[in-house]
Every structure is written in C-alpha cells, then in structure tokens.
Design a protein that fits this description.
Structural class: mainly alpha
Number of domains: 1
Order of helices and strands: HHH
Shape: elongated
Strand content: under 5%
Oligomer: single chain
Largest sheet: none
Number of strands: 0
Helix content: over 70%
Number of helices: 3
Distance between the termini: 6 Å
C-alpha cells in the first residue's frame, strides 16, 4: 500500500462519514437555532426545551435519510473489501 493509496482511502472515509452524518447534524443545528431564537424572543429560559425537539428532528432525519446512509456505507465498504488485495501488495 502506497502513501497515495492510504491517503485516498482516508479521504474517502472522511467524505463518506461527512455525507452520512451531515443531514442529521444539519437538521439538528437548524432546529437548535430556531429554538434558540424562539427562546431569545420570548425570554423563556428553559434548558430542557431544546433537547426534545432536537431529538425528534434527528430521529426523523435518520428515519428519512436512513436508506441513503446505509447505501453510502455499504458502497464504501464493498469498495474497501474489493480492493483488499491491492492494499496488501
């Protein structure tokens, strides 16, 4: 395995991780921002108010984007497993 192959594999792993985690994280971030703006405008300072909506939105995002996430992970792992003989050389 050359340095270029190792770097390419690492880069692909990071890109796949970002693509898999991205939708849930972005939707959680947007939900937290909306709730923070709501709390700032109404001056409701309840710390538990942010957790339940974020949990629900992230769970729905995983449910909705789950097939995409699974397809990305299985595609990446099948590529890694198919190139094992090239990595061992």
């Amino acid at each position: 395995m050359t340095y270029a192959t190792a770097l390419s594999l690492g880069r692909d792993a990071i890109v796949v991780a970002l693509l898999v985690c991205g939708p849930a994280l972005i939707l959680g971030l947007i939900t937290g921002l909306v709730i923070s703006i709501f709390q700032a405008t109404t001056q409701i300072q309840e710390p538990t108010l942010t957790f339940i909506p974020k949990i629900v939105v992230v769970a729905l995002a995983i449910l909705f984007f789950g097939p995409f996430m699974l397809a990305m992970l299985t595609d990446f792992m099948s590529r890694v497993f198919s190139h094992i003989p090239d990595y061992v050389k």
